[in-house]
Amino acid sequence: MKGVLPPRIDLLSDTLTRPTPEMRAAMAVAEVGDDVFGEDPSVNRLEGHISGMLGKEAALFMPSGTMSNLIGLLVHCGKGDEFLCEAGCHIFNNEQAGYAQVGGIGVRPILGERGALRVDQLQEMVRPENDHLPRTRLICLEQTHNRAAGSVLPYEVVAEVCDWANQQGLARHLDGARLFNAVVASGISAADWAQHFDTVSVCFSKGLGAPVGSALCGPAEKIKLARRIRKMLGGGMRQIGGLAAAAVYALEHHIDRLAEDHTKARVLADAIRNASGLTLQCDPVDTNIVIFEVAAEKGTSEEFCASLLKRGVRLYPISRQKVRAVTHLDVTMSECEEVAEMLADS
Ligand SMILES: *Cc1c(COP(=O)(O)O)cnc(C)c1O
Known about the structure:
This protein is of the alpha/beta class. It has 14 helices and 13 strands.
């Protein structure tokens, strides 16, 4: 992107948000200490805050959601073990198969609908005890589901799948990078969602608007092990209270406002639904991610995005014909209305 002006309206991802002046102020005055020794008061406050919100015994601050998910799998699975997941999930597609590279863990992906799996699809997927076979140890769900355009997995479906998994003796991990989008969209608390899982990862750097960070939450004994693995992976950080303070600020001030991002996404979705040659995927749009298909006669998704970029708007061509738009803290409603108009007569 050298020599190209930054887009005026950037819907590439909700990771693009910059810390607000108020968040920066909270970061500037944060107390700090050496977190590898457990002595950063701001990190300890954050870990207490997020574990409390999720109703878990403990939490661990992580540099990224990718590390939270990797360690979330490593505390449950060993070499030759296998986990079940939805085929479009981030862990399977977008994290370099870290579970295999680092943990010698295998994966059994299963195609879902809007990111959701049903118990009847899973029943045959747990392998019996047999010297030929990997051992099925865990199921992983994603809430909201990124590739399913930010869909919220229905509560009853999550509860049913997790109850079933529990009966099979499988551990349950939730990739909750956007769990708070699901909380706001559903009105169901984070603790209610989290109670169905042993471990839950959440991201502070997506719609919540913090510059960096994630947390893995779960039972004290698993989080103690997670802490040891985080150090091995080079994720032991020192005076990071400023970053933790940004995350605490985000949890206190940026959750309810996610509803605005969802409204903005619906404005885009309404325009796409009525535009000729554009087809909305995962209609209706539940949260802040909109995915649509561009009809071949209009060109490829890259060409479509290039023409919008010339008008100052950046969207993400995620496949040959599919485009993604993500709303967030740094785009206003009127900017989204402007993009909606461009899409309507694109
Ligand atoms: C962004 C994301 C992650 C990983 O987070 P990073 O902080 O970018 O490593 C994991 N899962 C989902 C669903 C995500 O959208």
